Amino acid sequence: MKRRDWMQGTAALAAAGSMSAALWPALARAQGGDYPKPDATLRYVVPFPPGGLTDAMARQIGQQLGERWKLNVVIDNRPGGNGQIGADVVAKAPGDGYTLLAITLTHAANVTLFPKSPFNFQKDLRPVALLAGSPMLIVVPAASPIRDMKGLIAAARERKLNAGSSGSGTPPHLTLALFNSLNKSAIQHVPYKGGAPCMTDLIGGQLDVVFSNIPESIPHVKAGKLRALAIASKARYALLPEVPTTAEAGMPELQVENWTGIMAPAATPDTAVQKLGAEVLKILAQPGLDERMRQQGFVIDARGPDRFAPFLTEEIARWAQVIKAADIQPS
Question: I need a labelling partner for 229 at 20 to 30 A (CA). Which of 30, 38, 56, 208 fits?
């Protein structure tokens, strides 16, 4: 090689190296390398009203993230549309790692319930972490002749029963639909605008059974106004140790948990998603948090983005089958 050519080549390499060095910070920022920035504001959208289970968990996680990362965390409640309004907000937000969405089993069902949604749940959002689950509790009035799950199955085949829920397409409704599918029964669904009025009518005897969210029914079970037949989880629930699981009661396929997790806009960098997921898992592993969450009706089920993603895909597919088989329509 001639000296002149060698010098030109060396200069080109040096220039390229300088350019790479100059571009590297921007590239690192694009990949989330400087994430999170102290004193930044993180918006955590909860697509349900304040005070519910999902809201309580989001506030717990948000507070911890703010303290650990020195962030300003704002819980933004955007209720409505079966959780779709808040999800739409996050799906269309910048993918910078500073906007999060609280989701539940409801959103997995919404993929099938709302095929013409203004956003694509699986393409416009990405999983960050699964936080916890709240198993469904099957309850009947205290005066009911139905004493256990076998009695419920027999009664459903012998006469017309009705079951209330907090609304069409909600976890209590989906659990009822799954029960009907597994038992070839036809318990009539009665939708309410929320869990509280549903519980009132169950206690009053206007309803035969409710496949309920634990926080809505457990106070009435402990007060002797309702009888718990089974809990739809793999293990018995610590606050109701005498209540058998659905598997113990002869229905192992009736396992339903109204879980909650975190998602972010699809454009959020991998580095930011992994950092968020890892930090959330650390928060959930804190001593004593599991018991505090259990008192609120949750059982910790901590999974980062790599484990949450397949779980979410399975839940969407599972409930799509139930919804289509029962021809469930959103209210």
Answer: 56
Cα dihedral across residues 228, 230, 232, 233: positive or negative: positive
Tokens for 96?
A: 């910078």
Query: Does residue 250 lie within any of the structural domains?
Result: no
The gap between the terminal CA atoms of the chain, to the nearest Å, is 78
C-beta separation of 175 from 211 below 8 A: yes
Q: Are 144 and 212 members of one domain?
A: yes
- Whole-angstrom distance, CA of residue 166 vs CA of residue 135: 15
Query: Per-residue pLDDT tens for 96-109?
Result: 999 999 999 999 99
Express as a percent the part of the chain with pLDDT over 70: 90
Whole-model pTM: value is: 0.84
Looking at the structure, do residues 124 and 176 belong to the same domain, yes or no? no
> 35: Cβ–Cβ under 8 A, 6 or more apart, which residues?
97, 269, 271, 272, 275
> Any residues with CB less than 8 A from the CB of 16 and at least 6 apart, and which?
none
| Amino acid type, 276 | L
- Token pair listed for 159: 């006469």
